[in-house]
Description:
The protein has helices spanning 14-29, 41-49, 52-59, 80-100, 123-132, 160-169, 187-205, 208-211, 230-239, 245-248, 262-271, 301-306, 312-326, 328-336; strands spanning 3-9, 63-68, 105-107, 138-140, 173-175, 217-219, 253-256, 277-278. The chain has 339 residues and is an alpha/beta fold. The strands form 2 sheets. Strands 4-5-6-7-8 form a 5-stranded parallel sheet. Helix 1 (14-29) packs antiparallel against helix 4, helix 5 (123-132) packs parallel to helix 6 and helix 13 (312-326) crosses helix 14 (328-336). It is globular and about 55 Å long.
Amino acid sequence: MIIDCHGHYTTAPEPHQLFREAQLEAHASGNPLPELPQISDDQIRESVESNQLRLLRERGADMTIFSPRASAMAHHLGDRAVSEQWTMACNNLIKRVVDLFPDYFIGVCQLPQSPGVFIEHSISELERTVNELGFVGCNLNPDPSGGHWTSAPLTDRSWYPFFEKMVELDVPAMIHVSGSCNHNFHATGAHYINADTTAFMQLIQGDLFRDFPELRFIIPHGGGAVPYHWGRYRGLADMLNQPPLAEHVMKNVFFDTCVYHQPGIDLLFRVIDIDNILFGSEMVGAVRGIDPETGQYFDDTKRYVDALDLSPEDHYKVYEGNARRVYPRLNTALEARGK
């Protein structure tokens, strides 16, 4: 089967967004936060069947690891209470999508992060979504400030309580920032790619995986600038007296294929070991249009992977095997269904 490791609910029904607007308005005016919105199953079906599910079928994939819209996490807006309520609303909506389309979607959670709030406060939502909702991972924001980078690096011990819980639950995290409130950084064109690259460099500088050898991170968007500058990062690791990247980082870090042109995919597969690449498209996501040079959608990343000269074994790894290995709870869920 073909598993897309990177999908967001970017087409959630309108009442969901209206609730968010009312929530932020209430917070700004000092009023009580509104009640969670009423959204029917039919509204959810309509929002998914004509968008993610249709494209999934048309493009030949089988399942998406599905999470709330990344740009809408907006951890920099509101406060801890606002973030917790919004996160629960988003994760509950993902659960409803999964329940309506269990053969096509499996959940990954948003976390209730906020600037200056200890990451321990996100542990209960991770436990709830994994143990009660059946989710298989989380999206972890290394910069809840939205582009000002006020948090400590991911290798700082302040993150350790959350990493301990990830290891206990045996779930990975996709390192994924949200919207940018810094006008220097366009959210999807700069902030996302900056964050991917920054996180990788933080991992090089530290020794996180010595303390957590079973911890697993997916760095999306093809790893940001990392594959293109692979020699730079190998050299920096050497200058910092760190072990080679294959030993120091790449037993625990994986990249997806959310790269929107053939030369970029070609480079990714030439530089990064096949065991560290998971198929992903991020659809419907950051880039939704048709490439005038090819006549195909930019985010139809399966076309790019199919154009590579991969062996059947490597095709299996990228499209299915690596996802099952990195997301063991996904593998358990699929095996329970005879897949």
